[in-house]
Amino acid sequence: QAQVVESGGGLVQAGGSLRLSCVASGSITGRAAMAWYRQAPGNQRELVASITLAGTTNYADSVKGRFTISRDNAKRTVYLQMNSLKLEDTAVYYCRVESLVGYVYWGQGTQVTVSS
Question: Cα separations (Å) of 23 from 9, 41, 74?
């Protein structure tokens, strides 16, 4: 059974750092496009960062220079290193995995709360 599980969220003060992890398992191979999205209360889900199988990355303007996405294909894992966190980064962060044939899998989300 295909599964995507995020971890690493929590409560952090503004200016602090967190590292999120997302592990794909089951029928999901390491040959997939991976991305992090987030959704704050009352807002639509938005793309934070993505990384292709070849390692090409893309970031939302709001996180450029602060967040770094990376992956370990052998472990079927994608990471999101978040530095210099701001209050507006508070959201539920979701991992999205898309297989080479176009199947899309979402994780259950992990809460990130940034306090002043």
Answer: 14, 25, 11
Containing 102, the helix (H) or strand (E) segment is: none
Compute the chain's Rg from CA coordinates: 13
Average pLDDT over residues 3-9: 95
| pLDDT tens by residue, 12-23 | 999 999 999 999
For 47-70, b/e burial (b = at least 16 CB within 10 A) is ebbbbeeeeeeebeeebeeebbbe
Share of the chain above pLDDT 90, in %: 84
Contacts of residue 90, Cβ cutoff 8 Å, sequence gap at least 6:
40, 112, 113, 114
- DSSP annotation of 52: -
Measured CA angle at 22 (ends 32, 49), to 5 deg: 70
